[in-house]
Amino acid sequence: MKIDSLKHKFLYKHKNLLLNFVAATFLIGLAFRFLFFNSSEIPPVLQSPFPEKTAVLEPSVSTPVTEDGPKIADQINDAEKCDVLVGDWVPNPSGPVYNNESCKFIESHQNCLTNGRPDRGFMNWRWSPRDCELPQFDAERFLRMMRNKKWALIGDSISRNHVQSLLCMLSMVEPAEEVYHDKEYRSRKWHFPSYNFSLWVIWSPFLVKAAIFEDMNGVATSEVELHLDKLHSEWVDEYQNLDYMIISTGKWFLKSSIYYENDSIIGCHYCPKRNLTELGFDFAYRKSLRLAMNFIASSNHKGLIFFRTSTPDHFEYGEWFSGGNCNRTAPVKEGEMEMKDLNRILRDIELEEFANATAKASRNGVNLKLLDVAPLSLLRPDGHPGPYRQFHPFAEGQNAQVQNDCLHWCLPGPIDSWNDIIMKMVIDG
Ligand SMILES: *[C@@H]1O[C@H](CO)[C@@H](O)[C@H](O)[C@H]1NC(C)=O
Ligand SMILES: *[C@@H]1O[C@H](CO)[C@@H](O)[C@H](O)[C@H]1NC(C)=O
Ligand SMILES: *[C@@H]1O[C@H](CO)[C@@H](O)[C@H](O)[C@H]1NC(C)=O
Ligand SMILES: *[C@@H]1O[C@H](CO)[C@@H](O)[C@H](O)[C@H]1NC(C)=O
Ligand SMILES: *[C@@H]1O[C@H](CO)[C@@H](O)[C@H](O)[C@H]1NC(C)=O
Ligand SMILES: *[C@@H]1O[C@H](CO)[C@@H](O)[C@H](O)[C@H]1NC(C)=O
């Protein structure tokens, strides 16, 4: 009885939320302009305070002699198996290994130090699993293990946020050379010459084929057209060339969209001007993820593929379109903060579809792993740029009207710990 009524309540809430969401999407166009478009699509060379080619601080490194991948694996496999994703944020007095001076890869909107964020505490934490030691990311070992390998982060602007963290850490050992970028600087490739290691970021915010109609200011002139039965060629075409991938998607599915199958319209999400069936973003999200995961699970890929869960935003005192902010300065403890419904809906679909896909993947010998960073990210409301997505936002006074970003992450910041986790998972797996 109790459970039934709870379930009822949840379904009711869920339905309401979807309806609310339809209404809220009206405003999304505007906010996404800040959160996704501006932050991503202006070529960084135009906004970067650093000239692209000045090597700052990076000592030149001589070619290392041996590859010690297997040896490290032996050492660390001795440690008891544990779930590295269950743990706490603990103080890390030594602070981050890079900063805004030593790293030239930090996008201006996430460069909280340069942008004048006054508090520093948010950088002095590291993720500590409850049941085992998590060694800090060792850039030199990582590069040695990755000799002759190709690695890609595939997804939206959070994947770009992450690649910048990884670039900052790796470039302390050897400066990354950019070898490719697309016109909008969204898909990019870097190479670490002494290690012949390639690191790519592939822009694919939906993973499925999408036509996006936005002008240079991010104002949508029409709904996104999403083909729920076709994967995005940008990543699929490279798939077999890559040794490691971290694949992720998420918030772009909340945008106004028209859904296609077999090149015919089957419905939409928030398209009031069109006489189409509202199918809900959750419908499209599940379908797209299922398609992507099914492709991976049946691919007989020989490398290691992480599916990264989407990360929660932390707007408080309002939403991103209604003056919400994220002004905390320290992590919270598990249970102290609840995941918002919207983030939970996305996450539940991710976990369900991942679970379904893994059975098939393991039958086919595909090494597909879950990189479930959502719970540990939830504990870091302090890690976002907030108003410091802009350069000195309060230069004109404390009452300046600024858009907060409580979705992306400051660099240095919490996502640097993702690299510790990935390194351990690579070594263990
Ligand atoms: C780095 O951030 C500090 C403030 O934390 C600032 O004084 C300095 O100018 C920044 N450096 C660069 C290169 O932006
Ligand atoms: C560099 O690595 C690629 C694979 O990522 C390989 O095809 C190529 O032969 C390597 N180059 C050298 C010089 O080893
Ligand atoms: C798309 O085509 C497939 C195979 O031809 C068919 O099974 C499916 O029902 C079609 N879907 C739609 C929405 O028309
Ligand atoms: C909307 O579509 C339905 C069914 O396809 C149709 O009956 C109705 O007349 C349409 N309404 C408008 C305003 O076009
Ligand atoms: C955070 O923002 C809220 C809402 O604007 C405000 O009431 C609160 O005092 C702020 N907290 C801090 C620590 O600045
Ligand atoms: C995934 O698992 C659920 C529950 O077991 C099931 O209802 C659903 O049909 C499965 N989907 C696929 C694609 O296997």
Automatic annotation (TrEMBL):
GO cellular component, one term: Golgi apparatus
Residue span, Trichome birefringence-like N-terminal domain: 80-133
Location(s), subcellular: Membrane
Pfam family of the protein (one): PMR5N
Record membrane topology: Single-pass membrane protein
Top-rank taxon, per record: Eukaryota
PANTHER family recorded: PROTEIN TRICHOME BIREFRINGENCE-LIKE 24, PROTEIN TRICHOME BIREFRINGENCE-LIKE 9-RELATED
Family as reported in the entry's similarity comment: Belongs to the PC-esterase family. TBL subfamily.
Name of the protein described by the UniProt record: Protein trichome birefringence-like 23
Origin species: Senna tora
